[in-house]
Amino acid sequence: MKKLMITAVAISALGAGVAMADGVVAPGDVKFEDGAVAMSLTGVPGDPSKASELMDRKFGNCIACHQISALDLPFPGEIGPPLDGAGSRWTEAQLRGIVSNAKMTFEDSMMPAFYKTEGYIRPGVAFTSKAPEGPLDPLLTAQQVEDVVAFLMTLKE
Ligand code: HEC
């Protein structure tokens, strides 16, 4: 009886990792066209006020490589170009594509793909030689990508 219950819990936990809420495009289903992603990943408009947190170290860590004057976050890196004016240089679809998987726009980019879970050399579970269990989570959720894109669109020249 106990064993049965553990199995049931394991199965429902697995399901939770795979199942996507209604209307959310799964990382493997994102359609790129010349690097751009025309369709919203969630159908819910992004909230640009979330960007400050999402672009800081705890989440996307965009500032490790980019300067973003509008956010006034400390110690920006210079590996990538400043993001000021990005909303004038790129369309929303192009920005969604760059944030989801920059390699679809910039071949060999060192910018991490923030909405991707496949095609990696899979990292092991920390400090063990074991393969990770279950699917990897993307670095940002679909809605977090939309929030960042909405913010980038406000960065006009
Ligand atoms: C490891 C460094 C790195 C990180 C982290 C990073 N980027 Fe980038 N990004 C780059 C580089 C380098 C480029 C320039 C294109 C290229 O050659 O790859 C770039 C280009 C871009 C561009 C196009 C710039 C322009 O206007 O020409 C946007 C937009 C962008 N990044 C957004 C982001 C966002 C948003 C995040 C965080 C969620 C992020 N980047 C995190 C390295 C990074």
Q: Tell me the domain tally.
A: 1
* Order of helical and strand elements: HHHHH
Number of H/I helices: 5
Gyration radius from CA atoms, angstroms: 18 Å
What overall geometry do the principal axes of the alpha carbons give?
A: globular
CATH topology name, in short, is Cytochrome Bc1 Complex, Chain D, domain 2
Set down the secondary structure blueprint.
Layout: H1 2-18, H2 51-54, H3 86-89, H4 92-100, H5 142-153
Helix pairs in contact: 4-5
Protein name: Cytochrome c domain-containing protein
Domain Cytochrome c: 23-156
Keywords: Heme, Iron, Metal-binding, Signal
Model description:
With 157 residues, the protein is mostly helical. It has a single domain (24-153), classed as Cytochrome c-like domain (Cytochrome Bc1 Complex, Chain D, domain 2). The protein contains 5 helices and no strands. Residues 6-19 have low confidence and may be disordered. The structure holds heme C (HEC). It holds the Pfam family Cytochrom_C. Keywords: Heme, Iron, Metal-binding, Signal. It comes from Seohaeicola zhoushanensis. Residues 23-156 form the Cytochrome c domain. GO terms for molecular function: electron transfer activity; heme binding; metal ion binding.
Short description:
With 157 residues, the chain is mostly helical.
Q: Which properties best describe this structure?
A:
single chain, 157 residues, mainly alpha, Cytochrome Bc1 Complex, Chain D, domain 2, binds heme C, iron, Cyt_c-like_dom
